[in-house]
Specification:
320 residues, 8-stranded parallel beta sheet, alpha/beta, globular, 13 helices, TIM Barrel, single chain
Length: 320
Amino acid sequence: MSVETAFTKLGENKRVTRNELIQLLKTRGASQQKLFTLARHKKELLSGKKIFVRLCIEASNICKNTCLFCGITRGNKSLPRYKLNVEEIKKIIDENYDGKTGLIQLSCGESSAYTIGEICAIIMHAKKYCGNITIGIGHRNEEEYKQMFKSGAANYLLKFETSNPKQFRIIRPEAKLSQRLFHIQKLREIGFRIGSGNIVGLPNQVLSDIANDLLLMKKLDLYQVESSVFCPTKGSAYENEKTGDIDTTLNCIALSRLVTDAPLILASSSLKGRFKEAFSAGANYISVHGAPDRVFKYYSIYGGETRRKFDAKLIAGLNA
Ligand code: SF4
């Protein structure tokens, strides 16, 4: 199998095999640029050159789970915990959302820190500004999903992180991949568009796992795709592990554009200084962070990055 054959298939929108995906994940240099060009071309055909911006509100870092890659794991006993109240969250939306940048996302650890009534009140407030609201608060029950949808949330983000069931069980001890996929299916039946994705560079992950992640992204018919670089985060079980490879992650982003029809593909904050390269590889949205500085430093799932604030100049620059 040659990479050229895989490029031809991608250019003709034909299905590529797992082995071809593995080769493409490894590609560098001129070949990598060719991959990016194909992905960028598809993005521009679908949605032009516009970069969408998601105002992500990191509402609370309280979590009942102990995921090994995550800095806000319940196991991180030294991390100060916070919960923004509903009025604070509404104020963040009032002050940071300009009505035309794209999406609002409510994110927090998986916990009962917020009642479903509070979540729905936030959704209804955000809905005054934005029709494209994403919820990323982990697993809830079916009745609660229905209430969130009825209140106006359009998208639900549940990253599968890895499509390898054994690895999933290790990195997310409280869950199983099959359960994650069951929740995704329930959310879809209710009417949500689904956001999901993977982490590139997890300990013991191999390229065939990432190729399988891409095939799962395709199967799930996603609205939002998020591939992030594994970043060892202080206080997590994986704090001493090696950071994931950024070029492999960029290739994964480009391939997610080419193998799925997802309208939105994230240029992840975990790419750090290289996040703009993701736009040339087919990504078309970024996150700005809504949580105030005083608490954002405790929302340590991003590998210690600095907070990217909403800034009209940043938005204009991205779309220049
Ligand atoms: S990944 Fe999500 S569920 Fe797991 S510990 Fe972190 S916040 Fe909690």
